[in-house]
Write a structure and sequence with these properties.
The chain has an eight-stranded parallel β-sheet with strand order 1-8-7-6-5-4-3-2. The longest helix has 17 residues, at 228-244. The chain is built from 13 helices and eight strands. It has helices at 22-34, 54-68, 83-95, 113-126, 137-140, 146-155, 169-178, 193-199, 213-224, 228-244, 252-260, 280-286, 288-296; strands at 5-8, 40-42, 74-77, 100-104, 131-135, 159-164, 184-187, 203-206. The radius of gyration is 18 Å and the shape is globular. Helix content is 47%, strand content 12%.
């Protein structure tokens, strides 16, 4: 298992000149580690992975791993809709001493279950690094079934986890019930974290923890400790903020909040555009309780 607990799916900050803002990125990393993050996930969906140039990626991976300096595991998003390119990115991350690779289901291609399995196996054979599969049908337009997840984990020991963002609790239940001992199951949807922990899940790769890492960590730690009353209370307290992270396309809301906090600049890369002005009041209201929890933690 690469980690157990809470790992932020970190945003990637950009400068006004549209370059990667490594200085702000390192400050985000330090804030997360100081707040108790159990791992750091970079270059995932929230990190605008699909618009990061290869040369930027290589530099950001090396810089991030060096900056973390072993304080927590670093998981790098290396999957995309090209197996060959995913292998290149995975080898680069492994060579930079990443602790894990986050391999998303190929988007646009809509592979069969056998195609996804072959995709993961090819990456595992090419890059000597643990893998967390990432099932997010809302982004990829295809679902990795419980049977496929379990089969891959049984056949490829290098696969040590899955980030499950299908939103299908029955499917997630089947994964947790049937998984081999080597497979950690992480929530890929903040709102599903509490029920997944109750089923025996191992934590979350989180969007909301970009802004309120201590508060999200309290929820997860309570669940992992079996303190279900406390975990349920934290879940309800964070629920509005979890949902507000998707009031518009992720990562628009979470980047708007971080920019308002002075932690990053507001820049996104096209085709993403800034949060619409009309969404800001609802976003701000939704985070009132979450910010109070963060301050109290």
């Amino acid at each position: 298992m690469i980690f157990r607990g809470t790992a932020p799916a970190l945003v990637t900050p950009f400068t006004t000149n549209d370059t990667v803002d490594t200085e702000s990125f390192c400050k985000l990393i330090d804030r997360q580690i100081a707040s108790g993050a159990d791992a750091i996930v970079i270059l995932g969906t929230t990190g605008e992975n699909s618009t990061i140039w290869p040369h930027e990626r290589a530099r950001l991976v090396e810089h991030s791993i060096a900056h973390v300096d072993g304080r927590v595991p670093v998981v790098v998003g290396t999957g995309n809709n090209s197996t060959a390119e995913s292998i290149v990115f995975s080898r680069q991350a492994a060579a930079a001493d990443a602790d894990g690779l986050l391999v998303v289901g190929p988007y646009y291609n809509k592979p069969t279950q056998e195609g996804f399995a072959a995709h993961v196996k090819a990456i595992a054979e090419a890059a000597d690094c643990p893998i967390i599969m990432y099932n997010v049908p809302g982004r990829t337009s295809f679902n990795v079934t419980a049977a496929t997840t379990i089969s891959i984990a049984e056949q490829v020991p290098q696969v040590q986890g899955i980030k499950e963002a299908s939103g299908d609790l029955a499917q997630i239940t089947d994964v947790i019930r049937g998984r081999p001992a080597n497979l950690a199951v992480y929530s890929g949807d903040d709102e599903m974290t509490y029920p997944m922990l109750a089923l025996g899940g191992d934590g979350v790769i989180s969007v909301v923890s970009n802004v309120v890492p201590k508060a999200m960590g309290r929820l997860v730690n309570a669940g992992l400790a079996g303190a279900w009353g406390d975990a349920r209370q934290h879940h309800f307290e964070l629920l509005n903020s979890m949902r507000a992270c998707f009031i518009e396309t992720n990562p628009l809301p979470i980047k708007a909040l971080l920019a308002n906090m002075g932690l990053i600049g507001p820049r996104l890369r096209l085709p993403l555009v800034p949060l619409t002005e009309g969404s800001w009041p609802a976003l701000e209201r939704a985070f009132q309780i979450a910010f109070a929890m963060e301050d109290a933690a």
